[in-house]
Amino acid sequence: MASITRPQFNIIIVGAGIAGLCAGIGLAQQGHNVTIVESAHELAPIGIGIHIPPNATLALNHFGLLDKLEKDAFYPTSFFFRRWEDSSTIAEFPASKPTQKGAMPYWSMRRSHYQRNLYEAAVEAGCKVRLGSRVETMDVDTPSVTLTGGETLNADIVVIANGIKSTLRNLVIPEHEVSMVLNPMSSYRVYVTKSNLLSDPVTAPLFEKTATNVWLGYAHHAIVYPCGGDLYTIGATHPTSSDGHEAMEWTASAEVAQAVQEFKDYDSILRHILALAEDVKKWRLAEVPRLPRWTSESGKVVLVGDSAHAMLQFLAQGAAMATEDAVALAVCVERARSAEDIPGVLHAFERSRKWRCEVVQAQSRRNGDVIHMPDGEEQENRDKKMAGLPQDGIWEADMGPFVDGKFRTWLYEHSVVEHARKVLDSLGL
Is the previous residue joined to 143 through a cis bond, with omega within 30 degrees of 0? Predict the structure, then answer.
């Protein structure tokens, strides 16, 4: 039987974050000519640590990257959920290294290590990465992008992966308002060293295990987790202050005292942890609204990652969904036998991903409601349910999707490859 000759497409990816690099890896591994254009002059990760849950490691395994990444990965032993006023344990859930054959791990990692590994893998796969290349405009029909300075790059496919603030999204969907939606909450992002946590008698008992600790309270929560080397990341979410912090500057600086003051009513242990923090940044939370579609009318330009479905942080799934996008995109583009098939396979990609991502978006909002629940009868029953105790309220309290076994199975064990192929088959592609 004669072998099938696969076409080599010219593909431009806008954005060299996690979504863009992963998409580049998958498409370049198939032999396509991939150029990634990035406006920044150097790759600087946003934030300090990142969760890489099992559905993300399953997707990365499709690219053959687990061995490369594992050297920089940490396996949190547990998730401890704590009460805001006294740091008492509400519930503990294991998050250990999997023992079942074929099970995917739950990792945490420094963002800089993750992005560096993905960049190296993209270059090794054959991607051409052009830093300092800002896209000024785009022709969705050709398709092509024009850079600052006037250079125009033509392609068979353009992949928009330049994040929540992307203005190119408006060119893909010009008939609707598709700008990001600001959330009334903001977050401090800081780091603290493990050595400082363990050497301090106040904080040491909480960090003898390599665990993730989460404090739950009304309109505030804090998460502290290991992210590599001697570092722990702290995310401290709170209502946005009166200044609004509308600018969405990812690197806006803040003072340690501001973070401590914001959590002044919380247990002294958490305030002590925040007081040990270094390099305090803050940003406003936001998400992308549910879009009517992810592909241009021409069928040649497609949104992926945060450009398509930026979500709130409360399930640690934003980067994971972007990674799944990249795998599904590669699987779908592989079915194209010529340039005429591109609109069809990009439609299949959208169909394989859109609803799942929208469900995760909605469940992230739901989890935010659960972890920011005010004290009272509902909160008391939530805590009982999380601890495995019987509830005695007038209604069954919601303990959120993170500790919902059925949802976790759907979220973490999803085979993006199998599902994309099923959609392609159903469309006759």
Answer: yes
Instruction: Supply the DSSP string of 363-410, one letter for each residue.
Output: HHHHHHHHHTPPSSHHHHHHHHHHTTPPP-SSSPPP--GGG-HHHHHH
Q: What are the tokens at 297?
A: 């009318």
Are 133 and 42 in contact, with CB atoms under 8 Å apart? Answer: no
Which residues make Cβ contacts (< 8 Å) with residue 44, sequence separation at least 6? Answer: none
> What tokens appear for 179 in the block?
């700008």
Q: How much is the pLDDT for 124?
A: 97
Instruction: Give the span between the Cα atoms of 366 and 406, in whole angstroms.
Output: 15
Residue 243 — pLDDT band, cuts 50, 70, 90? Answer: low
Q: How far apart are CA 240 and CA 279, in angstroms?
A: 20
Is the Cβ–Cβ distance between 12 and 160 less than 8 Å?
no
Residues in CB range of 101: below 8 A, 6 or more apart? none
Distance CA 192, CA 186 (A): 20
Q: Helices then strands (H, E): number in the chain?
A: 14, 18
Going by C-alpha positions, the residue among 349, 370, 367, 347 that lies closest to residue 359 is 367
Residue-wise pLDDT tens digits, 311-369: 999 999 999 999 999 999 999 999 999 999 999 999 999 999 999 999 999 999 999 99
Q: Would you say 118 and 63 are in contact if contact means Cβ atoms under 8 Å apart?
A: no
Q: Confirm if 191 and 182 have CB atoms less than 8 A apart.
A: no
Angle between helices 54-62 and 416-426 (to 10 degrees): 70
pLDDT tens digit string along 189-241?
A: 998 999 999 999 999 999 888 889 999 999 999 999 988 778 899 999 999 87
Which DSSP state fits 290? P
On whether the pTM is more than 0.85, the answer is: yes
Cα separation, 168 vs 256, in Å, equals 36
Pairing of strands 220-228, 212-217: antiparallel
What is the C-alpha to C-alpha distance for residues 189 and 193, in angstroms, rounded to an integer?
A: 14
